[in-house]
Design a protein that fits this description.
Low-confidence stretches: none
Largest sheet: 5 strands, parallel
Order of helices and strands: EHEHEHEHEH
Oligomer: single chain
Radius of gyration: 13 Å
Mean pLDDT: 87
Number of helices: 5
Shape: globular
Structural class: alpha/beta
Strand content: 15-25%
Distance between the termini: 14 Å
Length: 124
Amino acid sequence: MRILMTEEKEGDAYTVGALLAVEGHAVAFCHPHGGAHHPCVGLSAVGRCPLLTEPVDVVVDVRIDGGPPTAREMGATCALRHTTPLLIAGSAPDASTLAEGALFACPPDAVTAACAGLDDGRRA
């Protein structure tokens, strides 16, 4: 399964993404590692948006703190615009487009099981 990771705060997506990669998923990131000055990889000088380069099965938005949506979560908004399924790892922001458009939210430590269940459902 190809999974695109985005995050509420810099660095949050990398731990969850590593766990998904260990499970055999192909993982891409909306933000280049250490690229806090770029809004996303698609707007960096060397990258292209993963939603535009290859099919993405699900976008995972990692929200450890659970506050209001941040600019680092634009990948979640892009997922909704592209009709790519969105899974929120953590607390969905109250009364937001992200909360309304997400398939579901789960604790960050349950993301691997949630993605496995989504993948199983797609194969059925």
